[in-house]
Design brief:
Chain lengths: 275, 302
């Protein structure tokens, strides 16, 4: 009897301890970055040009923005159309659906460095796009595709069948039903997924080093090499004498990720309020 | 219902065109997988043949610039395995207990606060983790290493394991928590009715019932750890040597992923192809992990 009580007590203590540890670790990471980074967020780090004396992060921020937009242009329509086909046109559990789903699952497990290597072999060299914004965004769009597909699928499935039937009953065709009735009601869910994808694009570095390169200026066109903020931070942390600037960049990255998380939580809440 | 409508509208050109557009898009991810496999195997396959499969997989020395060059990836396989095992030892217990806490022990208000925090942990970019590890974990490990062994820079297998242990936490917590919550309430209530305490019901009835879901979370965490690149490169030391247990964990090691990032920029000819072949090895690991994961998830659903 005593032993049982002891085990109970021990497990309870362990649970609280480990949960506390998780929170403490996260708090420490954020504290460490903010304390060391915020004092170094000088105005000069936001100048238009990057020079070796002033490692401005503004060009990288602009490049990151371009990268995000271009990647979404490729991946979001592809992902949404895939999900529409899987959910609206195919029967549940059909062979094709399973194959696509397994492919997407496998894609989501592939490490980003393998994507980087593939991007180098295929987009950069085979298609001759060079180290460029375009190669980088094409590589990333394959990487985020499974995320977009999965979240859009969930969003489409959560639209009640009554909507579809109502629309058909009023004489609307399938295509019209999808674009006028179903997609608009699924938008918050799709949006939540897209925001998560944006977070992955912003945080990605391994897949970009060999596809988009590390050129640290604002690009004139999509065939120029760019350095996103995460890659910028990697380069800085490798050069021993830019540690303070690396901390400042980390603060900027954390702030963006924080914002994105808040947005996606908000979008997710909206889904529940509809359903 | 939907089928009938399909047939009625079959003559409509716009509808047919749309179906084909959707269908082609849906083939996109299959095409992506096929292309990735094709280019990896075309790029790395010849190198494996030239080096010899056993020499490549079990060669103990990676010395691409030596004459003659040696391309054995065993040190990197060992490095990845050591680092991942360490990460699992550190991350899994903490993750599972935290998941139990979130599902059963924590007040609703606290849960509302903690959930976004853990999501944030999942969203932090790996370079930021790596940088944190470099600045905060490596120095601590260096001191421990100096105290216990006769040296070590701190950039080591152990540092990488600690950092990856933290990085896989959100994956393990999220999936374990949802699989624990998916266990029907009757299990818990039944255990209570039989006189078991709250803690006992949770740990000896509900958690075992959720074990394949929890295991799936661990497998997914392993996948993350094996595939992680930048964070590992920044803290692991990257020496291509087979670590010797136990003091080896205080020495540097190199993972498969690190091998690619470190040398791809300047590699040429066979060296370059051998790096692509390293990616094939990595891909095979991930493929295996994916199969185990799918199997576990299916078991969980049944």
């Amino acid at each position: 009897m005593k032993l049982t009580k002891f085990i109970d007590r021990a497990l309870l203590v362990l649970t609280w301890l480990f949960a506390g540890l998780t929170i403490a670790v996260l708090a420490y990471i954020i504290f460490h970055i903010v304390i060391n980074g915020v004092p170094h967020l000088r105005l000069s780090l936001f100048e238009i040009r990057h020079t070796s004396a002033n490692v401005s992060m503004l060009p990288s921020i602009v490049s990151t923005l371009f990268m995000v937009i271009l990647t979404l242009i490729f991946a979001v329509p592809l992902g949404i159309f895939t999900s529409i086909f899987l959910v609206e046109y195919m029967k549940k559990g059909s062979r094709f659906v399973n194959v696509v789903r397994s492919a997407a699952e496998l894609l989501s497990g592939i490490p980003s460095i393998v994507y980087g290597l593939f991007g180098l072999l295929f987009f950069v060299e085979f298609l001759g796009l060079g180290l460029s914004l375009l190669s980088g965004s094409l590589t990333l769009s394959i990487m985020i595709l499974p995320l977009v597909i999965r979240t859009t699928e969930e969003a489409l499935k959560s639209v009640p069948d009554g909507y579809r039937e109502g629309s058909f009953a009023l004489g609307a065709g399938k295509l019209r039903t999808i674009f006028v009735i179903i997609l608009p009601s699924a938008i918050p869910g799709i949006f939540a997924g897209v925001i998560l994808a944006v977070g992955r694009i912003i945080g990605e570095s391994a897949a970009l080093i060999f596809t988009a390169g590390t050129f640290a200026q604002i690009p004139d066109n999509i065939l120029q090499s760019v350095r996103t903020l995460a890659v910028h931070m990697w380069v800085l942390s490798g050069e021993g004498h830019h540690i303070n600037e690396a901390y400042a960049t980390a603060v900027a990255l954390l702030a963006v990720i924080f914002l994105i998380n808040a947005l996606s939580t908000l979008a997710a809440k909206k889904i529940f309020s509809i359903a | 219902m939907r089928n009938v409508k399909d047939r009625l509208r079959a003559w409509d050109f716009k509808e047919i065109l749309a179906v084909w557009v959707f269908r082609i898009c849906a083939c996109g991810s299959i095409a992506a997988i096929a292309l990735i496999c094709l280019f990896l195997f075309l790029g790395g396959g010849p190198a494996i043949i030239e080096i010899g499969l056993t020499n490549f997989l079990f060669g103990r020395s990676w010395a691409p610039l030596n004459i003659p060059a040696e391309f054995g990836v065993l040190p990197m396989i060992a490095g990845s395995v050591y680092i991942t095992v360490g990460a699992v030892i550190i991350g899994v217990p903490i993750g599972i207990f935290t998941a139990v806490f979130l599902a059963f022990m924590c007040p609703k208000k606290l849960h509302k606060l903690l959930k976004p925090i853990i999501n944030l942990l999942a969203g932090i970019p790996s370079v930021v983790y790596g940088f944190f590890g470099m600045r905060a974990i490596v120095p601590v490990i260096r001191n421990i290493s100096l105290a216990l062994t006769d040296g070590g820079s701190g950039a080591s297998i152990l540092s990488a394991s600690v950092l990856l242990g933290i990085m896989i936490l959100p994956t393990i917590i999220a999936i374990s928590e949802s699989s624990i919550r998916a266990i029907s309430k009757e299990y818990y209530e039944g255990a209570l009715a039989l006189g078991a305490s709250h803690v006992r019901s949770v740990f000896f009835v509900v958690v075992p019932a959720a074990k394949s879901g929890i295991l799936a979370s661990v497998v997914l965490g392993i996948g993350r750890a094996v595939g992680e690149t930048m964070a590992v490169v920044m803290v692991a030391g990257n020496q291509a040597m087979i670590p010797i247990f136990p003091e080896g964990i205080f020495r540097g090691g190199r993972s498969l992923t690190a091998n690619i990032v470190l040398e791809m920029a300047y590699a040429t000819d066979l060296h370059r192809d051998a790096l692509i072949a390293t990616a094939i090895v990595l891909f095979c690991f991930i493929f295996l992990i994916n199969i185990i994961f799918t199997f576990l998830v299916r078991k969980d659903k049944n």
